[in-house]
């Protein structure tokens, strides 16, 4: 699986042959997109020692299932970060779009509109909401040249308010089957959401490596003006990336709503902090133009494993939040020395 996902723009050659020795591991880690691999292995070893239930099949599947929604949002954010921009409002899209769809199909009794429209039309409306939010963000940043931080922060607050207002702060449940399928079903014993997330990372990785637009995304993040001078349609590609990110955020929201079999007014809240953490420790540069989908995926898996270890150890949630910051810093330090990077950017 690792080999199939080594799809970064900056992938440099293959790993040396031989067995899985520590020397081979260090050699792999020196490839920028694999810098977290030693940390992941350490996390697996520590978890196995501390909690006998950690390495069970049930627990590992649970980690993957819970990480799948986050991974899709990280994928969306990583695409934007590669262009040298970012989007804080993705977490609100994760909540608003499924809420709109649920509101359209649920009865008034539980907080819905009572319109009882066709569930498939509601799903289309859900993705239309995500695409529209992405398009508005893209227009604000590309056409109006607004500061990405302030524009997407304002959008985050606006969408969160709309989500709460639409549902009157209530949780909508009793969702149609097509709403919960992707979050509850399994293929070959593996949750469907995990298959979907893995496929998306593979496809996007191939796209970034082999398609001209994928290579243009790296060029734009590296130097927008140079990319423009080279004939790359910078504004159009950045706008398209924002729209794509909005659609991916909707998919993550649908996966989360399916797993919980409901949509809450707080769905996705504070997710953006974990999204940025996973992207950054996964070696996605905040300055743009550098990073890989495999690195971003490893960042998601590391945070998922750490969270699971602490939860199994009965650590209180507030201590888990504090530990997250420490683990992120530790991962950054280890990645810094194993990769040989002198400047994180």
Provide a quick synopsis of the model:
The chain has 14 helices and 4 strands.
Describe this protein's structure.
The chain is an all-alpha fold and 345 residues long. The protein has one domain (31-339): ABC transporter involved in vitamin B12 uptake, BtuC (Orthogonal Bundle). Helix content is 68%, strand content 2%. The protein contains 14 helices and four strands. The strands form two sheets. It has a two-stranded antiparallel sheet. A hairpin with a 2-residue loop joins strand 2 (186-187) and strand 3 (190-191). Helix 5 (119-143) runs antiparallel to helix 11 (234-260). The two termini are 29 Å apart.
Secondary-structure map:
Elements (H helix, E strand, L loop, with lengths): L21 H8 L7 H14 L6 H26 L7 H16 L13 H25 L4 H20 L4 E2 L3 H8 L1 E2 L2 E2 H19 L1 H11 L1 H6 L4 H27 L1 E2 L7 H11 L11 H20 L4 H23 L6
Antiparallel strand pairs: 1-4, 2-3
Strand order of the largest sheet: 1-4
The helix fraction, in percent, is 55-70%
CATH topology: ABC transporter involved in vitamin B12 uptake, BtuC
CATH class: Mainly Alpha
CATH architecture: Orthogonal Bundle
Count structural domains.
1
Which sequence of SSEs, written as H and E, runs from N to C?
HHHHHHEHEEHHHHEHHH
Structural Rg:
20 Å
Helix/strand/pairing category: mainly alpha
| Number of extended strands | 4
Question: Which short descriptors sum up this protein?
Answer:
two-stranded antiparallel sheet; single chain; globular; 4 strands; ABC transporter involved in vitamin B12 uptake, BtuC; mainly alpha; 14 helices; 345 residues
């Amino acid at each position: 699986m690792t080999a199939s996902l080594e799809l970064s723009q900056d992938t440099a050659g293959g790993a040396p042959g031989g067995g899985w020795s520590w020397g081979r591991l260090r050699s792999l880690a020196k490839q920028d997109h694999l810098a977290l691999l030693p940390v992941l292995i350490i996390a697996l070893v520590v978890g196995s020692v501390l909690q006998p239930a950690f390495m069970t099949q049930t627990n590992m599947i649970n980690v993957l299932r819970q990480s799948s929604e986050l991974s899709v949002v990280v994928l969306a954010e990583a695409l934007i970060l590669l262009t040298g921009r970012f989007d804080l409002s993705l977490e609100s899209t994760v909540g608003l779009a499924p809420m709109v769809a649920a509101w359209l199909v649920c009865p008034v009794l539980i907080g819905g509109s009572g319109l009882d429209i066709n569930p498939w039309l509601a799903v289309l409306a859900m993705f239309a909401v995500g695409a529209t939010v992405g398009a508005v963000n893209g227009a604000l940043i590309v056409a109006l040249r607004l500061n990405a931080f302030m524009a997407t922060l304002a959008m985050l607050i606006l969408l969160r308010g709309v989500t709460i207002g639409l549902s009157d702060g209530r949780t909508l449940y009793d969702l149609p089957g097509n709403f919960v399928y992707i979050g509850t079903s399994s293929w070959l014993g593996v949750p469907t959401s995990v298959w979907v997330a893995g496929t998306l990372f593979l496809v996007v990785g191939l796209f970034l490596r082999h398609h001209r637009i994928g290579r243009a995304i790296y060029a734009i993040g590296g130097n927008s003006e140079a990319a423009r001078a080279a004939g790359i349609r910078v504004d159009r590609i950045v706008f398209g990336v924002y729209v794509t990110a909005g659609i991916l955020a909707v998919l993550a929201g649908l996966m989360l709503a399916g797993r919980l079999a409901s949509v809450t007014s707080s769905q996705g809240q504070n997710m953006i902090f974990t999204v940025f953490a996973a992207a950054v420790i996964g070696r996605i540069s905040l300055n743009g133009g550098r990073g890989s989908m495999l690195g971003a995926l490893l960042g998601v898996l590391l945070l998922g494993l750490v969270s699971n270890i602490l939860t199994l150890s009965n650590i209180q949630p507030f201590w888990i939040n504090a530990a997250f910051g420490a683990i992120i810093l530790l991962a950054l330090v280890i990645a810094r020395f194993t990769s040989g990077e002198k400047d994180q950017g």
